[in-house]
Amino acid sequence: MDDEKNDFERKEALRAGVWVIVMLLVITFGEFIMALIATGWGNLLILVALSKAYFVLKDYMHIGRLFSKDEEVH
Predict the structure, then answer these.
(1) DSSP per-residue codes, 3-46
(2) How far apart are CA 14 and CA 59, in angstroms?
(3) Packing angle between helix 2-37 and helix 42-60, nearest 10 degrees?
(4) Average pLDDT, whole number, for the chain?
(5) pTM greater than the 0.85 cutoff
(6) What's the CA gap between 6 and 23, in Å, rounded?
(7) CB 65 within 8 A of CB 33
(8) Is the separation of the CB atoms in 13 and 3 below 8 Å?
(9) Which partner from 9, 11, 13, 36 sits 20 to 30 angstroms from 59, CA to CA?
(10) Measured between alpha carbons, how far is 50 from 44 in angstroms, rounded to an integer?
């Protein structure tokens, strides 16, 4: 039963990770186009970059685990 739960959690984590990476790719492409077209929008580009950094920290660096009460057992 625990193996099925772990497999499900891994699949969900993988699905979320793939979704985030696709989202980051689309946003990065949009940033590139925006930088080419609207050169005066630097402040907006900085805000978008900061939001992307948040998702990288949250989903790929697992910062949330530092503050969770559940400890991972190996």
Answers:
(1) HHHHHHHHHHHHHHHHHHHHHHHHHHHHHHHHHHH-TT-HHHHH
(2) 10
(3) 170
(4) 83
(5) no
(6) 25
(7) no
(8) no
(9) 36
(10) 10
Look up tokens 């689309």; give the residue. Answer: 26
> Can you read off the two tokens belonging to residue 30?
């949009």
∠ CA 17-18-24, nearest 5°, is 90
Model confidence over 17-30: pLDDT tens digits?
A: 899 899 999 999 99
Residue pair 4/12 in contact (Cβ under 8 Å)? The answer is no
- List the Cα angle 50/22/45 in 5-degree steps: 30
Q: Which helix (H) or strand (E) holds 63?
A: none
Which tokens is 57 given? Answer: 């920290």
Residues found in the chain: 74
Residue 18 structure tokens: 């793939």
